[in-house]
Predict the structure.
Amino acid sequence: MKKKVEIVGSGPAGLTAAINLARAGFKVTVYEKNQDVGNRFHGDFQGIENWSTEENVLIFLERIGLSLRDAGLICRPYSAITAFDSGLNPTVMRSGEPFFYLVMRGGGSGSLDRWLLNTALEAGAEVIFNKRVDKLEDGGIVAIGPMAADAIAKGIVFDTDMEDIAAAILDDRIAPKGYAYLLVNEGRATLATCMFKEFKREGECFEASKEAFRKAFPRLQIKGEKEFGGYGNFFFGKPAYENGRCYAGESAGLQDCLWGFGLRYAMVSGYLAAKSIIEGREYASLVKKELLPWQRTSLVNRFLFERLGNRGYAYVINVLGRRDAVGEIRRQYAGPFWKRVMYPLARWNYRSRLIDRGCHGEDCACVWCRCGKGEAC
């Protein structure tokens, strides 16, 4: 009889785990409280970053069972980013390798979420929608996404005649301690502001970001726009494995702290959760080795970034414009000794934000519990 594994959440982390477990011969059931995958998204473009490790991310993902070169999936490399400082002075940052691979989120055809779902079903996993699961009595994998907002994004998706481009603006007036971005691919576009501070200014900052991109690209046309919003969560110290449950993706606080890129963390942690079950290995040790060093470095990078201000952003943009930008960013993620020394300071600085508010009682089987009494929220 096949061993049964239950997974809560049909995002990239949960479905990556399901794919690997099903291929290994496990009976996998994924529960999703919404009626379809990608419910949080609306066809907006995101990126799978390619700068935190030397190995190309697509090659790495193939090694963990995800071949994103599939013709049925929108996955486009972007090897140049046009970056603007607060004065809207442009610098084209280039690299011999892609900065990131653009993917579409949501339930539509060609989206990452739809592709992962189809791949999981083909592998033999069962996915049950409209099913909220508050407890996993027999353990399993929890991959329910973020439960708090450490960064937010507000934006629009739209049609445009503009050529394909990736562009970003670093300006604390329109994206406090974050960035505004424009991604165009084959006539579809996403424009948004990503904020790490001053969330109450969300609407004001978004309108300012839209106006800034219109000034930067006079040919930019916005047709049939649809609004979207999102948020991300990162924290440290949550047990990766507890009471028989593996926590993956943002439900484990796994997120790039500097730019908020979480897709790679989600898929890798889903794979590691599956690997721990398949091989009988300790999930917490796998996460500690494969993900935490990069996340800790990203927290130090965020600590340093927030001290730059607009003049500092302009300096960094100019430096990256003169060098192989991906190579330079990789050096910032390589975890040099001095950044390891700075990590305790960075963590102390963000101590109020790096909090897991879940219940950790020994008899608690809750998927996520905030009450501290073992009652599912």
Summary: Residues 370-377 have pLDDT under 50 and may be disordered. Residues 61 and 67 are 7 Å apart (CA to CA).
